[in-house]
Amino acid sequence: MSSSGDAKEPKAAEDVAAKAAPAVDPEDGLTDEDRELKERLEEAVAKAAGADASVLASALETLRSSIQESTSSMTSVPKPLKFLAPHYEGLKRSYAALPETEALRPSFSDILSVLAMDAGAEAGAGAGADEDDADVKEGAAAEPRGLLAAAEASATRECLEFKLTGDPAADIGMWGHEYIRTLAGQVGRAYEALLESEAEEEEEEEEDEEAAEAAEAERDAKVDRLMALVHQISPYCMSHNAEAEAVDLLMETQQLSSLVEGRGIKMDASARSRVCLYLLRCADFLGDEEDQHEALHVALALYLQNEQFTDAARVALRIGHPGQVRRVLEACGDGEEGEARRLQIGYLLGRHGYRRIGYGAAEAEDDEDEGEDDDLAAAAATVVGSALTSGMRAVSAAGAAAAAAAAAPLHASFSARSTAEHMEALNRPGAVGGTWLPEPDALPVVARLSDEVKDAIGNAQLSMHDDGARLSSARANLASSYVSAFVNLGHGRDALLYEPPAEGSSSAAAEGEEDVFKWVHSNNADGRLAAAGALGLIHLWDHEEGPIAPQPLTESADPQIVAGGALAVGLSCVGTATEADIAKELLDAFVDPDAPRKTCPTVVRSASVLSLALAYAGSGRADVRDMLAPYISDTRSSWGKDAAFELAAIAALGAGFVFVGTADRDTSDLLEARLTEACAANSQHPLFRQMALGLGLVFMGQGAAADATLHRLEAVAGPTGREIRLLLTACAYAGTGNVLRAQEMLRACGEHPEADFREKRRKELEADVADGATGPAADGEGADTASASAAGAGAGAGAGAAAASAAGAASSAGAAASSAAGASEGGNPRDYQYQTIAALGLGIISMGEELGATMVERAAEHLMQYGDPAVRRAVPLTLAMCRLSDPAYATIDTLSKLSHDAEPLTAQSAILAMGLVGAGTNNSRLAGMLRQLATFHRRDQDHVFLVRIAQGLVAAGKGLVTLSPLHSDRVLVRPVAVAAVLSTALCSLDLSGTLLGRHHSLLFCLAPAFLPRMVMTVDADTSEPVPVDVRIGTAVETVGQAGNPKTITGFQTHTTPALMNARDRAEVADEAWKPLCTVLEGVVLVKRQELADQGSAAAAQDDRVRAAAASALARVPSRMAGIMASAAGAGDD
C-alpha cells in the first residue's frame, strides 16, 4: 500500500503542475494570453494607420495601457515591446503622416519614444548594416526633422527625439525606470553633441551675422527643451533611490547647481548624505578643475543644508579656499550647541594641519588689507586640535571680524587640552587594551636600553640587534639616536637620550648637564647634532615643556650641540600655534643673518633655519618668510660658496614648508629667482633638489596655479630644467590622481635616454671609422661630460687600431664602434635623474586616489622590468608614497625583493621605503624582514644604517602614530605631511650626500607628518576623555548604494581610546553616546543621549528583537510553532 501511495503522489503533483502551467503552442511558443495580447496590439497598430481621430485615440490608449502595465517593473524586455518591435517602422510612418496640428500627435510621439528604447536601436543597427533597404530608408525619412542634428545617426537617439516632440506635461515616470535610464543617457549625449557643434561654430568665422544669430537661437531653444527634460528626470531618480543616476545626468548637462536651488528636486537628510558622498567620489575623476570645484561646492552647500557641519568642513578643506572654512564656522550657530560644533571642527582643522583662514593665492586681490590683518590676527581663533594646533587668521577686514566672533569660543575651549595630553592619555598603560606596546623582540635593542647598558654604550663596536650586523662606533651611535627618537616620539622621556630631572629639581642644571645629556656628549660631531635634535622628537607637540628641555644645550660651547639644541626647540613646537611664539623668540638670535659668524657658525644657522621652518610649517606667516629671505637671496662669499648655497637650499626648503599649498606669489617669485640662478652653478650640489622642492611645496595640490611658473621655467634648458619642471608638476598635482599628469610622468619613465645616447655615440663612431678618422672623439661633439669624452677618446684608439688592421672591413669597423659606444657608459648619469623624479612623481600624484594608487602598483612591475636604472631606483619609494603607514602584503613582498637588489642604490631606496610603509604600525612581518636584512647586509655600513632607521620608523611612537597624509575617511590629504615625507624621499636621489652624509638631519623633516593613529572620545560638556564602545573594522565602499548599507566589515568592538589602521573605519557601538561628527578619527566629541532617547532606543532594540523572533518563528514547521510560542510566553511571564 505504501509503495503504491508513494507512486501516486508524484503523479498527482505532476497533474497539478500541468494544470497550473499555461498551455504553450509548440509552433510559435506563445500562450493563449500572449497570443491574445499580440492580436490586440496588432489590431491597435492597424487602427493607428487610419485617419479617423476617434479610432486613433482608441488605438493609442490600447498601446499606452498595454505598455504601461508591462513596464512598471522591468526585469527583461516586456512582451508588448517585443510584439510591437516589428511594427515600429510602420508606426513611425503613421506618425509622420499625421498633420502637425493633430492633437494626438504628442501622445503618439510619447509611445514611439518608449518603443524606440528597444526597437529604435535595432532599426539604427539595421540602417547601418543595409543602407539599400527601402523600408529602413522610408522609416528614416519619417523621423522628426531639424531636431538635434548631430554627427551621429539620429536613430541612436530616437527615444529622445520622439520624447522632445511629445507631451511636455505627461508624467515620464509612468513608463518605468528603464525608460528613464535610457532617456537620461541620450540626453547626456545630445547635450555633449550640442556643445561640440557650438565649439566648431566658434572656430569657424561666420560671415553672415544673421545666420549665426539664427543658429545660436535655435541651439538655445534645443538646450531649453533638454533642460526641461532634465528637470523632469532628476526628481524622479531622486525619489526612487537612484541618486547616482540623477547626479550623473546633472553633471553631464552642467546643472549641478539645481541640487542646491531646488527646482522640484526634493531630498531628505539621508538622500542628501548619499548625494554628497557620491559627489566627493566623483570629484576625484573629473578632469576639468572647474567641474571638480563645482561638485565640491554643491556638496558643501548640501552638507550645510543638512546641518552636517563637520562634513561641510571636510569639503571646505578639500576645496582649499580659506573663505569656505570661515563660512562653515559662521554657520555653526550660537549657544552651547554651536560652540560644540566649532570645537569639533577645530579638532578637524588641527588634524589637517590647517593654521590659516583667508590666506592664499585665491584671495590675492585682498593684499591691500594685509596691514589690517596683523591687528586682527590675535583676534582670530587659535585652535589646539587632536594632533596639531591650528592658528587661524583672516585676510579681508570684512571677514576677519566675523571669523574672530565665530571662533572666539574655540580659543578658551581648545587651550585646555593639547596633543601632548592626548598622547599621554593614549600611552597610559592599558589605555588601548595593551596593544600599543610592541613585542620585545620587535623593537631594536636601543629602544629597550637600561641604565646599565646606557653606561656601556660607548664601546668601540655596538650591536644594535642580536643579528650579527655591526656598525662602526660613530655610525652606530648616530643610528641609536635616530631610532630612540622615533620609537619614543611624543612620549616626553627616553632611557637613552634624555632623562628629565627628578621632581623637586628646578632645572636640568640641578642634576648636572653632563648627567642629563650624557648620551649627547658621548657622540662625535655629527652624532651630537642628531642626539640633541632627537630631544625635539621626544617632546613632539609639547609646546610647553618641549622648548625648555634643550635650553642647556643651546648654551653649550660645541657648535654641533648648539645646532642640535636649536633644532630640538623647533621640533617640539611642530604643528602648534601659541600667542607667545615660543619657537620664534628662542630661535631669533640664531637665525639673525647679522649675527657674528664666530658666535653663530654655519651649522648652527642651518639647523636653526630648518627648525624655524618646521615649527611654523603650514602657517603661511609672512614674518617667518622675511626671516628666511636673506638666506635665500644672499650669496655672501664670507660664508664660502658651499656654505652660502647650503643655507639658501635649507631656507628655500623651509619657506616651502611654511607656505605649503598656498601658491603665495611673493614666496614663489623669491624661490624661482634663486633657483634659476642656482641651476647654472649649483645643480650638482646634494641639496639642489631640496631647493627645487621648496618651490614645489608652495604649489602643493594647487594644480593649474603652477602653470605660469612652469612656463617661465621652460627657459631652464637641459636635464636640470626638465627635472625641476617634473618635480613642480608632481607637487602641484599631489594627491589629486590627475590622469593626464600621471601619463606625463609615465612617458618620462618610458624613455631610454641612456640607450639613445649609446646609439647616437655608436653612429658617430661608425661615421668616423668609415671616413678613416683615427680619433673619433677628437672633436668631442658627442661627449656631454669629461668622463664621456675620455671614454670616447679611448674608444677612438680602439677603432683606429681596428681600421689599421682591417682597412675597409665594415664588420670590424662596426664592432669597434659598438665597443666604443659601450665604453662611453651613456654620458653623465646625473642627466637621467629626471626619470627618477618622474617615477617618484607618479606615486605623489596617485597617493590620494585609490584606483590610481592601484594602477601605479601595477605599473611598477613594468617599470622594474623595462625601465632604466634611474627609474628602478625610484620604484620602491613610488610604492611607498602610495602605501604610507599601510603595510599591504603585496607591497611588502615587492620591497623585500628590491631590498636584495644587486644595485646598491635600488636596495637602499627599498630599505628606506620599507620604513615608510610600516611607519608606526609595529608590523611584525615587516620587522622580521628588517632583522633579516640587517644580517644580509651586515658587511655594508650604509645598508645597515638604513635598516636601523627603517626599524625605528616601523616602531615609531611605540606603534601609536602614523605617517599617512590621508585622513577623514581618506578624503583629505594633509599638505604638510606630504611635504615632510617628500623631503625625505627626495634624499634617495643622492643618499651618499644627504642621509648617509653630512645632511642626515633631514630625517627630522618627517616630524610634521606624524600623527596619533587613534580615535579618542571627549565629552562635549566636560571636555574630558570618556570611554565609549566603538566598532573598528575594514572600511566598505558604500557610494551609490541605496538605503543604509553596512560601512565596515570584519569589525571588533573596542573601548576608546583605540588604535586605527590606515584603512580602518570606526562607528559608535554605544547608543548612550552620540558623536558630533560622522567620521570617527582623532578626537571625537560625544554627547550623552537624553533619557527619553535612551528609552526610545531600548524600545527600538526590543522591537527589532521581537521582529527577528517573529521572522524566525514563521520559518519553523507548524508542529514546532506551538512549542516555541509556549516557550516565548513562559519567558515573558
TrEMBL record:
Sorted alphabetically, the keyword list is: Proteasome, Repeat
Residue numbers spanned by region Disordered: 1-38, 196-218, 771-790
Where in the sequence does UniProt note compositional bias of the Basic and acidic residues kind? Answer: 1-17
**What is the top-level taxon of the source organism?**
Eukaryota
GO biological process assignments? proteasome-mediated ubiquitin-dependent protein catabolic process
Q: Which family does it belong to?
A: Belongs to the proteasome subunit S2 family.
This chain belongs to the protein called: 26S proteasome non-ATPase regulatory subunit 2
